[in-house]
Amino acid sequence: GAATAGAGAPEACLAWLKLFTLWGLLVVSLLLRGGKGAGSVVGVRFCSQAYWLATGIAVAFLLATAARTRRPEAPPVVCFLVGMLSAVVGMGGGVVLNPMLLGAGFEPMMVTATVTVLIAMVSSSATINFVLVDAVPVVPTLVLFAATFLGSFCGKTIVGWLVSRTGRNSVVVFLLAGFIAVSTIAVLVQGIFGMITAYAEGKNPFVDFHSVCG
């Protein structure tokens, strides 16, 4: 047992090294080209040649990494489309990734852990960019951070207690299904009311659709 654990340690370290390398690439890419509503720290203009060069290098590196570490349960193409859909529609990747990974046969606890790490990587990289361009209001950020951390801690504690009490990991599946259903309904209702309000005010509800560089 000890020998097996010792043999697995280098592989675990390598996996974490890859993960932090990807995270570092995300941070550097956002800092160089700007993104998530914040500008570039080196003055790269949006949609300029330097902007697309930085974007292309980051995308190529991420795709190459995905091709080398592919898993049959989570095809790189599908994951790429999920990320694109999440970015275009403006919803959290977890709303799409959770059901996709559960449908692929991953364990519920593994799914929640994977999606949590993914969200933490993307959110933290964007946060660093906002902080460096002085676009973060300190007090509201600290309040929201504390509230989010407390909510996550309470949720993790309650779910862990339910799983240990019932002995069923399916509790996580039902909770995820409930959250996804509520999120879907909320987005639909908000979108419908937004369109109705825009029409009532004589505005075009599709005015926000424009070219990438528009």
UniProtKB/TrEMBL annotation:
Membrane topology (UniProt): Multi-pass membrane protein
Subcellular localization(s) per the UniProt record: Membrane
Transmembrane segments: 15-34, 46-68, 74-97, 109-132, 138-159, 171-200
Highest taxon of the lineage: Eukaryota
Alphabetically ordered keywords of this record: Membrane, Transmembrane, Transmembrane helix
Any one GO CC term of the record: Cul4A-RING E3 ubiquitin ligase complex
Protein name (database record): Uncharacterized protein
